[in-house]
Amino acid sequence: MDERARRAASFEHGVAAYQTARPGYPDDVVRWCVPHDACDVLDLAAGTGKLTARLVAFGYDVVAVEPSDAMRAELERTVPDADARPGTAEATGLPDACVDAVTVAQAWHWFDERAAAAEVERVLRPGGRVAVVWNVRDARTDWVARWTEIVHTGDPLDTSAREPDLGPAFTPPEHRETSWSSRMRTADLRVLAASRSHLLTLPADERDVLLDRVDDLVAHHPDLRGREEVDVPYVTRAWRATLR
Asked: Alpha helices, DSSP H only, in the chain?
């Protein structure tokens, strides 16, 4: 198993941290990603259901495909109205032309891009839409930049959000960025760090060193020290494209 595949598989062991500390997605972004007249939506690599929950709340019929048994079990618990199924981005197990839209949140960088684009093309109905979304912490805030530096210490992979290469079957992707914030407990900044694939795959002693550095940041940074909660600034980066 190569490093990227190993990292992608690590979330099987980080479900509790992921569900506790990862943010959801702004409603206006969800509306932008999915056509208003869509009925059937595939949430691909749905994880614990952070985006799935918003899609269900908007009234779509949602199939949530997730390869991790542990993450899918959490999704079934938290979003029981979604149709959760095992599968991968490259092999969803769904029939041809069965959905109006496909969403991918926080996951496109883990895929075999060419195979995933072909699978999305296969399951979409003519004129259907695909949307690829990332929540990215806004490092223009000093403590966020320092937290990010700690969490990515020694990280060999570039997992930055970027425009997906969907191929000629799709229109050129449109791009949108949305700034917002998520309120969370300062104590959970350690949990948020623990949910990252880099830390999930480190030896326990190396992981603990980085998590202790996060605790030290919370204890001493002037914007965090003595506070029980903080607004974590995010930029949600989204791309959408239509099947020709």
From this structure: 3-9, 15-21, 27-33, 52-57, 69-78, 113-123, 142-151, 188-194, 197-200, 204-220
How does pLDDT run across 161-190, given as a tens digit for each residue? 999 999 999 999 999 999 999 999 999 999
Rounding to the nearest 10 degrees, give the CA dihedral for residues 57, 62, 66, 70. Answer: 50
**Rounded to whole angstroms, how far apart are CA atoms 44 and 1?**
22
171 three-state secondary structure: coil
Rounded Cα distance, 59 and 201, in Å: 37
- The CA distance from 167 to 169, in Å, is 6
The string of pLDDT tens digits covering residues 8-32 is 787 887 899 999 999 999 999 999 9
Rounded distance between C-alpha atoms, residue 9 and residue 188, angstroms: 23
Q: Considering the entire predicted model, what is its pTM? A: 0.94
Determine the number of helices (DSSP H) and then strands (DSSP E) in the chain. Answer: 10, 7
- Structure token pair of residue 38: 């869509």
